[in-house]
Amino acid sequence: MKKQQGKGLLALLGLGAGVFAWYKYKNLSPEKKEQLHSKVNEVGQKVKDTYTEVESSVKSNLDSLKNSAQEIKTEASELANKS
Length: 83
What we know:
The protein has 83 residues and is mainly alpha-helical. It is 94% helix and 0% strand. It is built from 2 helices and no strands. The protein has helices at 2-26, 30-82. The radius of gyration is 27 Å and the shape is elongated.
């Protein structure tokens, strides 16, 4: 029962933080809103770039592993055929 109460309290705190953030944003000056938008866009672009880099790295490592596995398989089949 206490676990559910903790989750409810956490949800209530999250909702309160969201309402507070909305209130603060609503009362910002247009210049501050523009600064916030540009900062959010900049961070979003950095996240997107990092994701792309990681994705490329993972793909290249996967391709390398596939090639290595294929070479080992070929060598193993050649050795088996010689025996």
